[in-house]
Amino acid sequence: MKTYSYKDLSKQEIEKLCLRQLEDDNSIQDRVKNIVERVKTEGDAALRNYAQQFDQVSLTQLYLGKEEIESIASTIPTAEKAAIDTAYQNIRAFHAAQANSEAKIETMPGVTCWRESRAIERVGLYIPGGTAVLPSTFLMLGIPAVLAGCKEIVVCSPPQKDGKTNCYLAYCALKLGIERIYLVGGAQAVAAMAYGTESVPKVYKIFGPGNRYVTQAKQLIQSTTMTAIDMPAGPSEVLVLADETANPAYIASDLLAQAEHGTDSQTILVATSQTIIENTLKQIELQIRELPRKDIAAKAIENSYAVLVDSLEEGMAFSNAYAPEHLILSTTGFEPLIPLIYNAGSVFLGNLTPESAGDYASGTNHTLPTSGFAKAYSGVSLDSFLKKITFQHITEQGLTNIGQTVEVLAQAEGLQAHKNAITIRLKS
User: Recorded E.C. number(s) (predicted)?
Assistant: First the structure.
């Protein structure tokens, strides 16, 4: 990891450091366009072809039904089952608390307005397979979808080499009451849910993280179909802000936890002490040797860096410019920093709050904006699966009170029919 001094960086250099483009996105865009177009025109045939090409699996059926899911789920080991149960309860409790109803407001006598929530009827959940299987993502997306009351939940995840799914995803499906898993991965899964195929239903909104291909596909279908997306959620990232009260071994473990996601993940250390940076780098060298995914983590660390700052406040300024998916405040003095956080997907406070707790079981959602999109996007929540519909009701008294205001404004805008809609009622 290269180290930079914040005070020596120009505004342009900071902006450059905050970029995450580690690959040629133009070539990825072209490939994704081809995949999406082929799925759009060829449907299931294209999905089977891509399963053979990318997953080395020959599929006769593109989904697993209820009985197969139950059979696979029954093989889950006891410890993993208990862990999923605990994570399920915590995630459900956190998201259930987000449900609320809004009061009706009488904006003036006789004029009443309010909002009501309605679930998005058909949603698509993408559960990555790739180099790591993520039952935690299934819980993070499936739980709020079920709580919201979505009528149809379409789940896509890449097939294993045996043409099935693993027992962890199957058990999650069982807990969520989802009776079908579509064995489709990558950009082709996004395209299938956006356009619909003979097997995969078309949905109204697609959720889920993924690699650059998945992210590009989500952004593409959002602009070319009537399908919404949760957010651009690409390669994972973490920024750790640390001072002299931090533990370098803890910091290193947090950086490596993100680095092992993929070679295009990024881990950033911002510290008030050169000693903390040096000791953290030493800890990374020690800890990475023991990781089964050390080659992946090492590549990600190569694409990462450290920034030396004069104060935690200066570190927060850099963090807000970077807008990290995950922000860890590795300091005992984190409370004064909380009001300074403007751009972050999810925040982890203090030396005993690792990001991996949020990834799995603390309760908060781990589907978060990456690549700087935390400047404008929130992570997935119950609200992500809901629409807010406004209502209004006007009585005779209300029409008398509001009528002249509407007539004057409509006249000023030159919209006579708008004015007439009020006038004709007032006259009668």
Answer: 1.1.1.23
Q: Among residues 95, 326, 355, 366, which one is catalytic? A: 326
Please state which architecture CATH assigns to domain 2-20+235-363: 3-Layer(aba) Sandwich (3.40)
Asked if 163 and 57 touch (Cβ cutoff 8 Å), the reply is: yes
Beta-carbon count within 10 A of 403 CB:
16
Dump the DSSP string for 27-42: HHHHHHHHHHHHHHHH
pLDDT bucket at 210, cuts 50 / 70 / 90:
confident
63: confidence class by pLDDT, cuts 50, 70, 90: very high
* CATH number 1.20.5.1300 given to 395-427: yes
Q: Contact 216/32 with Cβ under 8 angstroms?
A: yes
Active-site position among 325, 335, 366, 393: 325
338-378: pLDDT as tens digits: 999 999 999 999 999 999 999 999 999 999 999 999 999 99
The verdict on whether 198 is a catalytic residue reads: no
